[in-house]
Each structure stands twice: as C-alpha cells, then as structure tokens.
What does this fold into?
Amino acid sequence: MQLQLKLCHKQDIENLVLISKTTFIDAFEDQNNPEDFTVYINKAFSKETLTLELLHPHTHFYFVNLGDTLVGYFKLNDLNAQTDVHDKDALELERIYVVTQYQGKGIGAWMLEQAKELAKTASKQYLWLGVWEKNTSAIQFYETHGFIKFDMHPYYIGLDKQMDWLMRLDLSTL
It folds into this structure.
C-alpha cells in the first residue's frame, strides 16, 4: 500500500468539503439528532467555513491518497488556531478521518504517524486532540498509540452538548 501525504491548498477546497462532510456523516450521523446534525454539518463543513480554516496561517489540512484515490485527511492546528490548549509547545490534531471503505487497513495509523512526524519536525513537545467520549473505538485507537486523557471539554453538534475527552501524546518519549 503506497500512501501519499499532500498539503491542502485553496484550490483543493471542493475536495476538502466533500471528504469532510462524507467522513463525518458516515461516522456520526446515526448517533445524533437529525436536526442538530444537519445544522452542524452545514456550518462546520461549508465551503466558507473550511476556506477560512484553510487560509488560517496556523492551520494545515493534509489529504492522504492511495494512488489517485483520496482515502483520508487530517487537520493540524498550531498556536492561536488551537481550540483549547493554546500552547506553543503543542500541536492539535483536530480532525483525522479515513473514508469508510478504507478503514481497517492501517491508514489511520499511518496518518497518525505522519501527524507525529510533522509535530516533531515543528519542535513540538506533544500532540493533543479531542475525541467524543462515546467514540470508544477511536479512544481505544488513540490509547493504543500512546495518547492519555488529560481533560474534557464540551462539544456542540447543533444545540446538542456532548463531551470530548482531551488526549495527549508526549513526543519526547518517541
């Protein structure tokens, strides 16, 4: 399996909107109130919202391709783009998603390794993320890769208040 990492640019916005919506809907639609979920999807993954995020100087989206096929993406936030921690020694992994039909093939683990390497290259001390407390398979995945829970924060899907675990990986031990 030959995966390639590609930094997203403004001309990639249509593909970013499509993969963002598709992977999030596939992962969480059946676990949420339809009205709240629709409101969230239409705002969080709109072309306007994602363009603003993509153009932020401290936010970087990366596509993962298998040959010519887009199979996943992740988003890294640095400095003032971080959603909670705002630590210059940290990098936030805000999103990491694999297209449903490519899950279970090691792509998520490969993506996580790429995020770790990008964080180390940027001289960060740790990588952190938020994961929905009910997403036990993702929590287990992150724990398997060395992340530990350090806090919680609320996360809204529309008007539905949910809780995310905040997890971190100390990069100095790698």
